[in-house]
Amino acid sequence: MIASPLQSPGLDRPVAELQHRSADQISAITTYFADRAERGDAADLTDLDTAADTFLADKLVALEHGKAMLCHRLCLALRARRIVEVGTSYGVSTLYLAQAVRLVAEADGGTGTVIATEQEPAKIAAARENFRAAGLASCIDLREGDLRTTLRDLEAPVDLALIDI
């Protein structure tokens, strides 16, 4: 029997499906920004504009499985119980983090949480549904809005911060 990467066979399949959807979008994202660069329309991509925001509004933009697993295992090794994730998107990497928090909390007793932020309303709704379907909603505090506001009053301590935007 093959071991479950996330130590939850019921979570592996939906996460793999989300990862597959995200990977399928990479080509379109790459083409979009390459075309803009070719037109000279994207000289400074560090500050995304409205057109780019609109284009990315329905993209998963998920951390790849290998990187997400590294974060998951790092959280387990750190015994992390309080994690901040900036830019949850559809919540794919949030699921990896929340599963780690749940495992640590179950082993140590007590609770843990992933504090995630997202600004895009459709992504927030999709992420909440993904969290619920995975059975991890109780481990996630999804804060809606601009991260400069949603994380302003963040209480310490924080064991790990994932900033992948």
Task: Summarize the SSE layout with pairings.
Blueprint (H helix, E strand, L loop, with lengths): L8 H30 L11 H7 L8 H14 L3 E5 L5 H17 L4 E6 L2 H14 L5 E5 L2 H4 L9 E4 L2
Parallel strand pairs: 1-2, 1-4, 2-3
Helix pairs in contact: 3-4
InterPro entries: SAM-dependent_MTases_sf (IPR029063)
Protein name: Methyltransferase
Averaged pLDDT, please? 90
Whole-number count of domains: 2
By CATH, the superfamily of the largest domain comes out as Vaccinia Virus protein VP39
Count of DSSP H/I helices: 6
Enumerate the spans where pLDDT stays under 50 for 5 or more consecutive residues.
none
Number of strands: 4
Helix fraction, binned, reads 40-55%
Instruction: Describe the strand arrangement of the main beta sheet, using strand numbers.
Output: 3-2-1-4
What is the overall shape? globular
Largest sheet: 4 strands, parallel
Distance separating the two termini: 36 Å
CATH class of the largest domain: Alpha Beta
Report the CATH architecture of the largest domain.
Answer: 3-Layer(aba) Sandwich
InterPro entries: SAM-dependent_MTases_sf
Pfam families: Methyltransf_24
Organism: Nocardia jinanensis
Protein name: Methyltransferase
Structure description:
This protein is an alpha/beta fold and 165 residues long. Helix content is 52%, strand content 12%. The chain has two domains: 9-56, no CATH class; 65-163, 3-Layer(aba) Sandwich (Rossmann fold), CATH 3.40.50. It has helices at 9-38, 50-56, 65-78, 92-108, 121-134, 147-150, and strands at residues 82-86, 113-118, 140-144, 160-163. α3 packs parallel to α4. The termini are far apart.
